[in-house]
Specification:
Layout lengths: L3 H10 L6 H18 L10 H26 L7 H32 L2 E6 L3 H12 L5 E7 L8 E4 L4 E6 L2 H8 L1
Parallel strand pairs: 1-2, 2-4
Antiparallel strand pairs: 3-4
């Protein structure tokens, strides 16, 4: 989705036809800039609004560099400041819309098929983490056990809302079986 936004933006915004290799370079540059900034990392609860400043800043940088390169190498295809601003805003909006659609699809998939998750630790912090995972199924993580550092006499420990008991896994063999 990130690579598609520059191509669509150039088709909509730029008044002169641009060579497609330049558009391809723009798309690759956007993907690389976003990857360098860490915008492609998986997050527990991704949000386009939290990424908006980085998306806008990197898009402005990309458009400014393109504008300067065009002025130096192909003045007949140079763009002005207004096209730069409009292009960066359009590309940012398209990128945000694409990312929002992808995040929505990922949340729906996470709700349908949550991943089994082991919570490492015991006590109140482990219960808080487990409760948070139960309270937010859109994270896509379903707790199935607690990994304890030492064996305890308590085989089942309530977690979350105190109504869902999770097995406490104390030995490496139990953890191995749970992972498999």
């Amino acid at each position: 989705m990130d690579a598609l936004a520059p191509a669509v933006t150039f088709a909509l915004v730029v008044p002169v036809p641009w060579p497609w290799p330049l558009v391809a370079v723009q798309a690759v540059a956007q993907v690389l800039l976003f990857a360098r900034r860490g915008l492609h990392r998986m997050r527990l609860s991704p949000s386009v609004l939290s990424e908006l400043p980085a998306l806008l800043g990197l898009t402005l940088l990309q458009w400014y560099v393109t504008m300067e390169v065009l002025v130096a190498w192909a003045p007949q295809q140079a763009i002005g400041w207004s096209v730069l601003a409009y292009g960066a805003a359009t590309q940012t909006a398209l990128t945000c819309a694409g990312r929002a659609a992808v995040y929505r699809a990922r949340r729906r998939a996470a709700l349908r098929r949550p991943l089994s998750t082991l919570v490492v630790g015991q006590g109140s912090l482990a219960r808080q983490v487990t409760a948070a995972l139960y309270d937010h199924p859109a994270y896509g993580l379903r707790p199935v056990g607690l990994v304890a550092g030492q064996a305890s006499g308590d085989e089942k420990q309530p977690a979350g809302s105190d109504s869902v008991p999770l097995p406490v896994l104390a030995s490496p063999q139990e953890v191995g079986r749970a992972v498999v």
